[in-house]
């Protein structure tokens, strides 16, 4: 639970910075803009839809999977309510970078519980297994698709989106190593 609470903080920091966000968050933000739902509630809705997509893939969720789907968005909404205003670009960039690092640390923290993968990770891994395709190809296809759909719905794609895409894999790898999760 602590990992998910911290993950919500990381997501909120990247969203609050206003310089671009992760691909799945672009989709949630686009849905939020189009429906009037809060960002966090839109994130929960995306997570639930993703979990429904697990059914034909025969992926089994764990406790942390369901907790992730229901709580990360709500935790992000909580943090978004209390984060201070940012008045300068350097503040936005610093907050964004901090958010990416926090997301990576939180990912290692919640995965180390071994109580289930996140909804998006399970969808991508299940799809890769079902199609017998390399994970990176499936992840790239999913993230490119949700990024495009979210952007068309008004989600923010900027330099932060690129920074996230280029850095998150390496930072999560470091976090997993710190939490003693082997490569694989």
Automatic annotation (TrEMBL):
Keywords: Membrane, Transmembrane, Transmembrane helix. The keyword Membrane applies. The chain crosses the membrane at residues 33-55, 62-83, 89-113, 134-154, 160-179. This is Unannotated protein. The keyword Transmembrane applies.
